[in-house]
């Protein structure tokens, strides 16, 4: 039985059953189809085909990605293993030619990674990226496609506790990168920082001298937010609770933003600097900047195409002027 035949059979059987509502029927069909796909995809070449098929389907149907994407990805992670699924998604999306879709898809995968209980073990592995070879390999594998989205990249760095690199990514952002879409994603991240997933990060704020780069990263995000936004107030409130200890050279000003710049960076700059040689972060930063340059050029091409199309449309509109008779 082929994959298409199996899926068609499952759907037809599901339709013959009576469910409380159409939405429940749809949900059951999706879950059954996924189980069929997962059984077929146990072999490696079928697995690659399955993930490619899902990405193609999401590309052609953004509504499906928005409404059912999280359910599909989470269920697939349960059936086939979260690390295996996410590595394959990243490998395929790394070479995605539709940059807009790649960014949207990566953002969706990143949100699932940060919120789903099914991916708890994957998050735990990422937290060991600086001290464990398996965590390092996973971090680099995801980074290859996560760089399609600045906010997804920063989120990944926060999970991996690669705070120094997160700060470098923030500093590398240009004016074109900080747009409405970016701010919406940033707003989501700030709210997620208050969830149990990032409890370890908030606890690290109790030792500001040890986690200098974490503080710089959070203040960097704060400076990118509009001051009147709810996300700005949430993050500012959190940073006000940081206990500035003897490691902080306090200035006469009570402004916490000036205090953070005076953090003493003696022998213990940050937890991740001790393991910096394990991952080539300068190379990753170059890759990130190169990908963002592609996205900027793509955006410029889109704007230019729209301008050209508008100009062409206007040129085809008859002009009714006035003529004078002598």
What secondary-structure arrangement, pairings included, does this model have?
Blueprint: H1 3-16, H2 22-40, H3 44-60, H4 62-80, H5 82-94, H6 99-115, H7 120-127, H8 133-146, H9 150-160, H10 163-172, H11 180-192, H12 199-204, H13 212-224, H14 230-240, H15 256-260, H16 281-315
Compose a concise summary of this entry.
It contains 16 helices and no strands. It has 326 residues and is an all-alpha fold.
Provide a descriptive summary of the structure in words.
The chain is mostly helical and 326 residues long. It has a domain at 167-243 and 281-292. 69% of the residues lie in helices and 0% in strands. It is built from 16 helices and no strands. Helix 1 runs antiparallel to helix 2 (22-40) and helix 13 runs antiparallel to helix 14 (230-240). The longest helix has 35 residues, at 281-315. This is Protein VAC14-like protein. Its main location: membrane. Keywords: Membrane, Repeat. Residues 64-242 form the Vacuolar protein 14 C-terminal Fig4-binding domain. InterPro entries: Vac14 (IPR026825), VAC14_Fig4p-bd (IPR021841).
Structure summary, number of beta strands = 0
Backbone CA Rg: 24 Å
Beta fraction: under 5%
Shape: globular
Distance between the termini: 85 Å
Number of helices: 16
Instruction: Report the helical percentage.
Output: 55-70%
Structural class computed from helices and strand pairing = mainly alpha
Which ranges are low-confidence, i.e. pLDDT below 50, for 5 or more consecutive residues? Answer: 3-22, 249-273
**Mean pLDDT over all positions:** 82
Instruction: Name the helix and strand elements from N-terminus to C-terminus, one letter apiece.
Output: HHHHHHHHHHHHHHHH
Biggest beta sheet summary: none
Protein name: Protein VAC14-like protein
Pfam family, one: Vac14_Fig4_bd
GO cellular component, one term: endomembrane system
Subcellular location: Endomembrane system
């Amino acid at each position: 039985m082929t994959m298409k035949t199996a899926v068609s059979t499952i759907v037809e059987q599901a339709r013959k059953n009576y469910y409380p509502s159409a939405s429940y029927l749809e949900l059951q069909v999706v879950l059954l189809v996924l189980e069929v796909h997962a059984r077929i995809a146990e072999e490696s070449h079928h697995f690659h085909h399955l993930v490619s098929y899902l990405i193609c389907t999401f590309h052609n149907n953004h509504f499906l990605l928005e409404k059912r994407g999280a359910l599909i990805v989470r269920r697939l992670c349960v059936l086939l293993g979260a690390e295996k699924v996410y590595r394959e998604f990243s490998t395929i999306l790394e070479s995605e030619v539709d940059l807009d879709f790649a960014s949207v898809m990566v953002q969706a995968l990143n949100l699932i990674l940060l919120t789903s209980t099914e991916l708890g073990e994957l998050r735990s592995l990422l937290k060991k990226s600086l001290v464990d070879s398996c965590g390092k390999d996973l971090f680099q594998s995801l980074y290859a496609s996560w760089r399609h989205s600045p906010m997804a990249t920063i989120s990944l760095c926060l999970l991996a506790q690669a705070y120094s690199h997160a700060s470098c990514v923030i500093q590398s952002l240009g004016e074109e990168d900080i747009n409405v879409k970016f701010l919406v994603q940033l707003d989501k991240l700030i709210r997620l920082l208050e969830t149990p997933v990032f409890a370890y990060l908030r606890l690290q704020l109790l030792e500001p001298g040890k986690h200098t780069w974490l503080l710089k990263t959070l203040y960097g995000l704060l400076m990118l937010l509009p001051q009147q936004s709810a996300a700005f107030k949430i993050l500012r409130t959190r940073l006000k609770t940081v206990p500035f200890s003897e490691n902080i050279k306090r200035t006469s000003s009570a402004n916490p933003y000036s205090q953070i710049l005076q953090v003493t960076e003696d022998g213990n700059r940050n937890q991740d600097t001790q393991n910096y040689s394990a991952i080539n972060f300068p190379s990753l930063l170059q890759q990130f900047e190169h990908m963002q340059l592609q996205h900027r050029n793509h955006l410029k091409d889109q704007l230019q195409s729209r301008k050209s199309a508008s100009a062409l449309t206007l040129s085809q509109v008859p002009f009714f002027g006035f003529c004078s008779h002598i």
